[in-house]
Design goal:
Radius of gyration: 15 Å
Strand content: under 5%
Mean pLDDT: 93
Helix content: over 70%
Length: 109
């Protein structure tokens, strides 16, 4: 059960980070209103706070989170950008999630 909670927290964290970066992207590249920067800042603050909720060492959390971030970013590519991931994208997601699982769930001293 702890594994599912960890993965869910990583997914929510990744969404917060991606939203926090995507809104300024829209402002810079697509002429979105400048007020987009306010929810972006809040989203990035939530992202940082969510990373602190893990009981593992910060470096381990950051390393493992990266694998989930890559996975959520590929889903974002598909559902928000409308670009269907390739089999190579899915292979990369699989490798990243395996790395995350090894880092977070392997026995540590």
């Amino acid at each position: 059960m702890v594994e599912l909670k960890t993965l869910a927290l990583f997914i929510v964290t990744a969404v917060a980070e991606i939203v926090g970066c995507y809104l300024p992207y829209l402002w810079l590249k697509n002429n979105a209103p400048a007020w987009y920067l306010l929810p972006a800042g809040v989203s990035l603050a939530v992202f940082a706070w969510l990373l602190t909720l893990h009981p593992a060492a910060a470096g381990r959390v950051y390393a493992a989170y990266g694998g989930v971030y890559v996975s959520v970013a590929v889903l974002w590519l598909w559902h928000v950008d409308g670009i269907r991931p390739t089999p190579w994208d899915w292979l990369g997601v699989t490798v990243c999630l395996c790395g995350m699982a090894i880092i977070m769930f392997a026995p540590h001293r």
